[in-house]
Amino acid sequence: MTVWHSWLAALLALSSGAAALGRPPIIDMHLHARRAGPIGPDAPALCAPPTTMPRWDNARPLAQGLSQDERPCAHPLQPSASGEQVMRGTLAVMERRNVIGMASGEPEDIARWRAAAPERIVAGLDLRIVPRPPSARFQARSPEEVRALHAAGAFEVLGEVMAQYEGVAPDDARLGPYWALAEELEIPVAIHLGPGSAGAPYEGGAYRARNSSALGLEEVLVRHPRLRVYIMHAGYPLIDDLLALLFAHPQVYVDIAAIVATEPRPAFHRFLQRIVEAGHGDRVMFGTDQGIWPELIEVAIRTIEQAPFLSARQKRDILYNNAARFLRLTPAQIARHHAM
Fold first, then answer.
1. Number of CB atoms found within 10 A of residue 285's CB
2. What local confidence, expressed as pLDDT, does residue 231 receive?
3. How many structural domains does the chain have?
4. In this structure, is residue 72 part of a structural domain?
5. Whether the bond into 24 is cis, omega within 30 of 0
6. What is the pLDDT of residue 68?
7. Three-state secondary structure string covering the chain
8. Is residue 55 part of a domain?
9. Structural domain of 142
């Protein structure tokens, strides 16, 4: 029996038992093992999903000029007040819904989350490449540092690669050594391509919406054909660029983090439906982008479970099976997830 047939047999054999327990496993490919501080000390409650998006009266500074004509939602998501609350609240939801999560962050934070829930955390490494002042919350890492951290077992997935926030396109020469390293060591890579915060280009960074295009990855993929990479946020909302890339490069996967809960529901559903109808539903992975609102995970799960255009099989593929394949989980690992 081939490895693929062993994997498939384990999955099919366990699916009915997991359903009976009401806790089929879910893989969240986009969590953050970060402190609450990066969001700000006065983080607001979150309406997820929103019905309108922010607008800016640019006669005023961005922080004061953003507004949103949205009726108060019935159940706004409350932010965590500290890094400890973020971790405990997130892990509580993960335990309740049997979620295994790819949590990215700084090595010390990743280690703390892993120690608290070793069976539920797949460790990711946030990556910045542009030198930053010592006071910055994210520090740049050289390829040599990344190699050493991987050798020490500090992370399993290289990502979130946040080059878009630095104004660096995926095919920029500065990212070349990291792509080569990931291909050499067979490290899965997760790169942010898609929306930032409203007004992100005016927040002192170099974020540009044009770098959301999935086609920015094309030359990277051609140069590194064995690279295992997924696009965080699925290059939203540039659906035609994404579909062109997925067709031409069938090894690429996407996650639907953030957009699954923080974009207006009709817009997100149309976006996901286009991907599925184009035949790429088996490369869509669940993700939340949970940072400080732990209940965002529940909202995101329900968004997939209640999507009227997805079959039961497609929902399970998005919530678990596609990520299990991308991560190359063994039959034993899949069995353990179903038994948790």
1. 30
2. 98
3. 1
4. no
5. no
6. 81
7. CCHHHHHHHHHHHHHHHHHHHCCCCEEEEEEECCCCHHHCCCCCCECCCCCCCCEECCCCCHHHHEECCCCCCCCCECCCCCHHHHHHHHHHHHHHHCEEEEEEECHHHHHHHHHHCCCCEEEEEEEECCCCCCCCCCCECCHHHHHHHHHCCCCCEEEEECHHHHCCCCCCHHHHHHHHHHHHHCCCEEEECCCCCCCHHHCCCCCCHHHHCHHHHHHHHHHCCCCCEEEEHHHCCCHHHHHHHHHHCCCCEEECCCHHHHCCHHHHHHHHHHHHHHHHHHHEECCCCECCCCCHHHHHHHHHHCCCCCCHHHHHHHHHHHHHHHCCCCHHHHHHHHHC
8. no
9. 3-40+81-339
Alpha-carbon torsion 22, 25, 31, 37, what sign?
positive
Asked if 198 and 56 count as a contact pair (C-beta separation under 8 A), the reply is yes
CATH number, residue 183: 3.20.20.140
Low-confidence ranges of the chain (pLDDT < 50): 1, 3-6, 8-20
Contact criterion met (CB below 8 Å) for 237 and 261: no
Beta bridge partners of 99: 26
Write down the pLDDT at residue 20: 41
Distances, alpha carbon 162 to alpha carbons 165, 238, 257, in Å: 6, 18, 14
How would you classify the pairing of strands 229-232 and 157-161? unpaired
Q: How many residues does the chain have?
A: 340
Alpha-carbon dihedral of residues 95, 257, 285, 101, nearest 10 degrees?
Answer: -30
Strand partners, 196: none
List Cβ neighbours of 198 (8 Å cut-off, separation of 6 or more). 53, 54, 56, 66
The answer to whether residue 243 sits within a structural domain is yes
Name residues whose C-beta falls within 8 Å of residue 18's C-beta, 6 or more positions apart in sequence.
24, 25, 338
